[in-house]
């Protein structure tokens, strides 16, 4: 009988709704206005009525149910049947009693017990606003998202949409890819504002912000507030600079310790500001911030004309993170804004500690980091973090023009809930351990082939080795590319490049002339020991292939010269 009912359900369509009792609806009001929650609760009651009718009458409903409901309903039934988890059929006590018409009481009671366990997970998430210690499985997260999306008006059973933006999606594939979230985030005047039509989306956005703050805490950065922007790191830096500019409209200069990455420069130009390049200085093998020049430029330009210092913490060796503690002290003394480009620095405890020390001893206004590099999600969002300057986060939020895509929010929520606090910390610890192992192996490998590892102890993510013994070392880049080794860089010595009208000598090496060509690599968040192992295996093959090809080229060149000489002699 139960299987017959299951077959019947497949022919139907169901809409599920956010699985929470009255207490959980009350908890939701911490995130979104009461009126929005009440409307979602009303939609829940309509859906409960559908479940009740199906179980009571055991007949096809007059109007078919849509795909999302079928999928969610089947997921819930599967979980109840297998008793494998943390979710179960969304029914109150009355519906559980009705279920006993189909399956034995003992099975239903066991499923009810499972329901209570899942309710507890939801309650803990909404109450504590922190990552669960143990990550949730995929089916649980997917079901939770389906329940949240049912709170949005475009998924209400009886909604009639007469506006210009009603969350309509033509393709079922697109709708499924986005878990039926189609309203995006924010409103036209504020990217963090709640949406009357989309309480589920609004709740997801705010909850994800809390989870991100908890992740930063685990990484060693105790942020007080943050904003997840639906744009990548560069544009998020631009948004931050524009928000600061609104507070100091006459200032037009940004002091920028040189880092040879186009985005870092373009984000200043896009904000309508003028970058003042502070060249790095070489200390041993390391490229470090020239604090003397920075202080002198501040005096020359004048404090009223300087908007901020834009420092960088995550970079490729031999450049090291900027001296953010010293910069923070200088900015505090001169009342200058201090912004940190922390693109992929969250994965390093040492960088988080460095930023925390800078905040304690000086001034930091905003820290911007990528989500794809720090949390292993697709490119598309970045997080601006405040360590007490919460008013700046509000300025950025109200400055953002229009709504934004919720895709990045969904990705980050899924990923963080999959990891859990224990899983995320384990990845941080693993990256730190692999960095040390990778660096030591690189040192041994370099010595084995007559090169040396550059001493860059202040860079906790990247390292570099010389290529002095190689003939035409720049040609190695093609060998790495052909053998599918990505990310490592062969850095030239005398590259000239003009970016946004500014000419750079030695572009790529962060300095006019480093003195040698080198190869660098990084142990970034998510790297595995298997990748390191394969890298060295392929590096050995590359060296052999490169040497062989150079010898062939020399031999061919000698033959051509000989033929030329013989032809000349015979003539």
Structure summarized in a few sentences:
With 571 residues, the protein is of the alpha/beta class.
Q: How would you describe the overall organization of this protein?
A:
With 571 residues, the protein is of the alpha/beta class. 51% of the residues lie in helices and 11% in strands. The chain is built from 19 helices and 14 strands. The strands form 4 sheets. A 7-stranded mixed β-sheet has the order 1-9-8-7-6-2-3, with helices on both faces. The protein has a 3-stranded antiparallel β-sheet with strand order 10-14-11, with helices on one face. Strand 12 and strand 13 form a beta hairpin. Helix 1 packs antiparallel against helix 4, helix 4 packs across helix 7 and helix 9 packs parallel to helix 17. It is globular. The termini are far apart.
Write the layout of secondary structure elements.
Blueprint: H1 2-11, H2 22-28, H3 34-57, H4 67-82, H5 93-99, H6 105-128, H7 138-149, H8 172-177, H9 199-219, E1 225-229, H10 233-245, E2 253-257, H11 262-270, E3 274-278, E4 281-283, E5 286-288, H12 291-301, E6 306-312, H13 324-334, E7 337-341, H14 349-361, E8 366-370, H15 371-375, E9 382-386, H16 390-399, H17 407-448, E10 462-466, H18 476-482, E11 489-491, E12 496-499, E13 502-505, E14 518-522, H19 529-570
Parallel strand pairs: 2-3, 2-6, 6-7, 7-8
Antiparallel strand pairs: 1-9, 4-5, 8-9, 10-14, 11-14, 12-13
Properties at a glance:
single chain; 571 residues; alpha/beta; seven-stranded mixed sheet; three-stranded antiparallel sheet; 11% strand
């Amino acid at each position: 009988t139960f299987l017959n009912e299951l077959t019947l359900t497949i022919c139907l369509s169901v809409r599920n709704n956010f699985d929470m009792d009255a207490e959980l609806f009350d908890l939701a009001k911490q995130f979104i206005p009461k009126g929005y929650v009440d409307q979602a609760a009303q939609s829940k009651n309509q859906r409960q009525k559908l479940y009740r009718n199906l179980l009571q009458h055991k007949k096809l409903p007059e109007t078919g149910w849509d795909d999302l409901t079928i999928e969610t309903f089947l997921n819930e039934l599967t979980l109840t049947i297998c008793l494998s988890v943390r979710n179960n059929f969304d029914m109150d006590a009355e519906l559980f009693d009705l279920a006993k018409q189909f399956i034995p009481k003992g099975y239903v009671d066991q499923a009810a017990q499972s329901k209570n366990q899942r309710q507890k997970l939801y309650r803990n998430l909404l109450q504590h606003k922190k990552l669960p210690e143990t990550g949730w499985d995929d089916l649980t997260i997917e079901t939770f998202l389906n329940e949240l999306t049912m709170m949005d008006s475009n998924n209400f059973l009886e909604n009639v949409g007469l506006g210009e933006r009603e969350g309509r999606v033509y393709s079922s594939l697109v709708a499924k890819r986005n878990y039926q979230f189609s309203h995006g985030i924010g409103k036209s005047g504020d990217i963090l504002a709640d949406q009357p039509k989309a309480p589920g989306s609004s709740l997801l956005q705010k909850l994800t912000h809390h989870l991100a703050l908890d992740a930063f805490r685990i990484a060693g950065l105790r942020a007080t507030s943050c904003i997840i922007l639906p744009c990548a790191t560069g544009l998020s830096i631009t948004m931050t600079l524009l928000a600061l500019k609104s507070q100091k409209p006459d200032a037009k200069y940004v002091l920028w310790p040189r880092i040879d990455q186009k985005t870092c420069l373009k984000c200043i130009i896009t904000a309508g500001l003028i970058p003042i390049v502070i060249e790095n200085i070489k200390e041993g093998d390391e490229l470090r911030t020239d604090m003397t020049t920075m202080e002198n430029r501040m005096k020359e330009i004048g404090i009223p004309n300087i908007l901020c210092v834009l420092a960088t913490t995550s970079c490729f060796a031999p450049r090291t993170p900027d001296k953010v503690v010293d910069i923070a002290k200088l900015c505090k003394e001169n009342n200058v804004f201090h912004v940190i480009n922390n693109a992929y620095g969250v994965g390093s405890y040492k960088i988080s500690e460095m930023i925390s020390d800078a905040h304690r001893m000086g001034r930091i206004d905003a820290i911007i980091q990528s989500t794809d590099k720090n949390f292993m999600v697709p490119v598309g969002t970045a997080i601006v973090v405040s360590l007490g300057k919460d008013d700046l986060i509000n300025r950025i939020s109200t400055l953002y023009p229009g709504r934004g895509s919720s895709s990045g929010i969904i990705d980050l929520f899924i990923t963080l809930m999959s990891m859990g606090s224990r899983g995320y910390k384990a990845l941080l610890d693993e990256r730190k351990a692999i960095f040390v192992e990778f660096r030591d192996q690189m040192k041994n490998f370099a010595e084995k082939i007559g090169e040396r590892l550059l001493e860059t102890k202040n860079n906790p993510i990247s390292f570099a080795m010389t290529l002095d013994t190689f003939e035409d070392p720049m040609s190695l880049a093609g060998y790495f590319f052909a053998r599918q080794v990505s990310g490592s860089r062969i850095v030239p010595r005398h590259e000239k490049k003009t970016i946004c009208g500014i000419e750079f000598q030695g572009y790529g090496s962060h300095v006019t002339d480093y003195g040698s060509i080198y190869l660098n690599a990084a142990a970034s968040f998510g790297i595995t020991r298997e990748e390191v192992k394969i890298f060295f295996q392929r590096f050995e093959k590359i060296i052999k292939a490169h040497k062989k090809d150079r010898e062939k080229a020399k031999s061919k060149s000698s033959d051509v010269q000989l033929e030329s000489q013989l032809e000349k002699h015979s003539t």
